[in-house]
Design a protein that fits this description.
Blueprint lengths: L1 H21 L4 E5 L2 E4 L7 E2 L1 H11 L5 E6 L12 E6 L4 E8 L4 E8 L19 E5 L17 H7 L3 E5 L5 E3 L5 E3 L5 H7 L5 E6 H4 L4 H10 L2 E5 L5 E5 L2 E5 L13 H15 L4 H12 L24 H36 L4 H26 L10 H22 L1
InterPro entries: PfkB_dom (IPR011611), Ribokinase-like (IPR029056)
Pfam families: PfkB (PF00294)
Keywords: Signal
Amino acid sequence: MKHWAVLLVPLVALIGYFASELGRVDLLLVGTITVDVVDDGSRPAGGAVSYAASIARAYGIRACVVSVAGEDADLSVFAGHELHVVPAAATLTFEHTYTWFGHQRKLRVTANPNVTLSRAHVPRHCQRARTVILGPLTQHELDAASFLEYDSMWDALFRGRQHIGLMAQGFQRRLGPDGRVLPLLTPSPQLLSGLGRSRRVSLFLSDVETEPWSEDWLGLVVGSAERVLITRGSAGATEYNDTGVHDIHIVPVDKVRDTNGAGDTFATGYMLALARGLPDPGAHASWAASRAVMQPQSCKPHCAGDLIEGHVPAWRPADRLAAAAHGLGAAARGLVDRGLREGLAAALHLRQLPPGTLTQMAAKATAGAGGGAAQSGKKKSGGVGGKKLAAGPADEEDDDDDDELASVTVATVTL
């Protein structure tokens, strides 16, 4: 009976794990909604999170969306999603000016909600989303680092393994005195802190943001992220990950009608393909972006995913279970890898110690224990009322041995 009980406990835990995965939120989108004022006087909705919501709906995914907006915001692009809006006095508003026959765009912020979104704004059940996509549009509107933090061990178990994507274009912008959007020449503190220390984040940028970076800055960012993807317009994209540097080619289309939202579509398509375990998320993301550029600006962001809809099978319970199994396997591999790394580090440290060090330490520890007992006997026999009458040379020698042993032991524990 005891043997059955031992087998039953992990089996029940495994069944509970897969049952909880079936009810898990598929996608969390966090970012600011915008009003985009263009040359013809129209004021369409915009923002990375708006395009991501349109693409997610085309994939048949109902996302949790957390954003900040004023009363003038058009929220219709989020129809079908679970929307949570942090109210603000104004909606982030960009004034778009096109020069050089429409090939160069200048941006100016004319209204700013001045609210910094963080994980604290996200409902508890949405925090457990399988995939998280963060889309800041300005430098201080989103605390990306908060989504990498855990309140406790239970919080880490509750939220489980997550795919986190950071569309960090906004972190590489600064605002001039007149509201003009100006580029940053090096990775911003917000971007670096948003990558964390555990290499869990997939970072998405364009060559516009990364072109001024030195090789050292690029190396630092690549080394801090799980993967870095840099889109290059008609030249495709470049992916940096543990296996090297890889080119992602574009999917040719008959006519490019408008490129707005192509990068957001690429990032969203990549993250959804990654969560689903597709073998080549980059190729899938490139295909999704090619559908978005075939749509006119006049209907965006609502229509950005229209040419995707129906071409990607919706998530079924079997797909969610497969993703859960993949996540469980990845977690197990992570634990094994960490154990091997720590074991190898310990072995390398032991090899650097002089021969006989461990034997000497063991002998000193044994002698120290025996000496302590003998010293206790001396105190009882040579003192009155437990007090020591005099200190001799032998006592000083014992003290030196104890100090030496203590220093060796502390050094070993520290390493």
